[in-house]
Amino acid sequence: MDSHGERHLNRTHASNTDPEARLFKKGKGKAAKLCFIRQVLMENRHGLVISPRLTAATGTAEQEAAEAMVETVPGRQRITGGGDKAYDTQELVQSLGP
To answer: What's 21-37 look like in SS3?
Structure first.
């Protein structure tokens, strides 16, 4: 990202109101914004939130949160899941697999 000849990096740009916020882009061509990322594990049948998370925008936050949230599901039964493309990585699928 380039603004007025200045490249925006986490080490050079910080929020005045929340210094823990990190620069994050939702996709190619989108503007980077200082923020946190939210993830939610939901029960699909009734749409109930099982486990919410708020994480720093690290680039791997989605995968790390998914692993942590799945561990909160009680019991040892097999579960199924769905997610957007940020969760579709070989490492995550393997870590959650049987």
So the answer is: CEEECCCCCCCCEEEEE
